[in-house]
Automatic annotation (TrEMBL):
<dbReference type="InterPro" id="IPR016639">
    <property type="entry name" value="GST_Omega/GSH"/>
</dbReference>
<feature type="binding site">
    <location>
        <position position="63"/>
    </location>
    <ligand>
        <name>glutathione</name>
    </ligand>
</feature>
<dbReference type="Pfam" id="PF13409">
    <property type="entry name" value="GST_N_2"/>
</dbReference>
<protein>
    <submittedName>
        <fullName>Putative glutathione S-transferase</fullName>
    </submittedName>
</protein>
<feature type="binding site">
    <location>
        <begin position="112"/>
        <end position="113"/>
    </location>
    <ligand>
        <name>glutathione</name>
    </ligand>
</feature>
<dbReference type="InterPro" id="IPR036282">
    <property type="entry name" value="Glutathione-S-Trfase_C_sf"/>
</dbReference>
<feature type="site" description="Lowers pKa of active site Cys">
    <location>
        <position position="254"/>
    </location>
</feature>
<dbReference type="GO" id="GO:0005737">
    <property type="term" value="C:cytoplasm"/>
</dbReference>
<feature type="region of interest" description="Disordered">
    <location>
        <begin position="1"/>
        <end position="20"/>
    </location>
</feature>
<feature type="active site" description="Nucleophile">
    <location>
        <position position="32"/>
    </location>
</feature>
<dbReference type="GO" id="GO:0004364">
    <property type="term" value="F:glutathione transferase activity"/>
</dbReference>
<dbReference type="Pfam" id="PF13410">
    <property type="entry name" value="GST_C_2"/>
</dbReference>
<dbReference type="InterPro" id="IPR036249">
    <property type="entry name" value="Thioredoxin-like_sf"/>
</dbReference>
<feature type="site" description="Lowers pKa of active site Cys">
    <location>
        <position position="211"/>
    </location>
</feature>
<feature type="domain" description="GST C-terminal">
    <location>
        <begin position="130"/>
        <end position="257"/>
    </location>
</feature>
<dbReference type="InterPro" id="IPR004045">
    <property type="entry name" value="Glutathione_S-Trfase_N"/>
</dbReference>
<keyword id="KW-0808">Transferase</keyword>
Amino acid sequence: MTSGAFVRQKSQFRDRPEGGPDRHHLYVALACPWSQRAAIVRAVTGLEIGISYAHPYRDERGWAFTGDRFTDDVNGFAFLQQAYDSSDPSFEGRVSVPVLWDKEAGRIVNNESADIVVIFDEWTGGTLYPADKRAEIDEVGAWIYEAFQNGVYRAGFSRSQRAYDEAFAGVFSALDRMEALLADRRYLTGDAITLADWRLLPTLLRFDAVYHTHFRCNGRRLIEYPNLLRYTRDLYAQPGVADTFALDEVKEHYYTTHDELNPKRIIPAGPLDLGFT
Ligand SMILES: N[C@@H](CCC(=O)N[C@@H](CS)C(=O)NCC(=O)O)C(=O)O
């Protein structure tokens, strides 16, 4: 491990659900890419599960339900911390979204987006994660997550030049690799959309507006990669997907929550053209 490198905590609730979607509830913050994965798969599969949205600004008290669009109608929590405390009073990790909540048991089932999208797919017929494609979906998902999706965070939160340089190189070699892959296929694993595509999309949607500037991933912008841009536009145009992308919330979250990166909390006005909206 390079000194000064950002390390994401491991998700701590990784259970399988008991019962179906009607017994469960989803907590997300649309600002968060891992939350958006779950929101997208919920939307495109037509899954009927309740959802609550946390406010994009997060202070030391963590994700909050502040009223208006940001309410928890199931438990009336003011802070997502309460969901963690009532699931495991000894929980000491960071309170993260997304969270899959079991209403009957009154506890968190799972707080790992990569698991939650599989559960949602199983509840709706399993077409996005077919058995004969699983190995390929997981394989492509692993390097994309490591170098690109978590890589932008490692670049942004690096505490040394060396850690940043390594993360930056990984982000742009992953972008080149994806660009090449998409030269002769429409989606990551072929002609059909799978979970690999929905897991990736939230990072692409945030790239030019946030990661390029805020996380110093300024090698190239998404709009400079023709295949990736075509791919992003295609996925973004699928029914229900655009409703899960709240650009204002995304920008508010990143540019106002990370004081060490942007202490004046000024939100950049651009980009003027994202190329996919
Ligand atoms: N492994 C988790 C990661 C979730 C995660 O890191 N979420 C961030 C928001 S983008 C979070 O809630 N962070 C809270 C914190 O660090 O305090 C997943 O993919 O579900």
